[in-house]
Amino acid sequence: MSDKALPPAVAVALGVVASAADGVAVVYRGVEGLPMVGSWLRRGRLDLQARGERVLAAGIETILDELDLNALARERLDLIGLADEVVDGIDLPAIIRQSTDSVTAEVMSDVRTQGERADDLVSGFVDRLLGREPR
């Protein structure tokens, strides 16, 4: 909403219209409950309601087609503040630590396995060199 306040006369006029509309709605609901005309009024209200919803949907589509939502977002939203809030919510050190831990564990496992193979190879070579039985 705009920072500008409505002129007092406009605010009063809107209040009067809203109060009148509320009063008419109360009376209409009472009349709609009458046996002779109630079903006829209900049908009419439902038809008008459906027509109003179609007109409103078409109007909204037209407005959305004309709006530049990107420009509106740039003007109305604090995108830098939003991005800062998102980044603050990310625990980057924990993410780096977790990914590094898994990579380190895999590398250490590979190094251990290769070391065991090299140890077996050297052990077998020394056993043959010294004439020992293979293990």
Automatic annotation (TrEMBL):
State the protein's name.
Uncharacterized protein
Which source organism does the UniProt entry give? Mycolicibacterium frederiksbergense
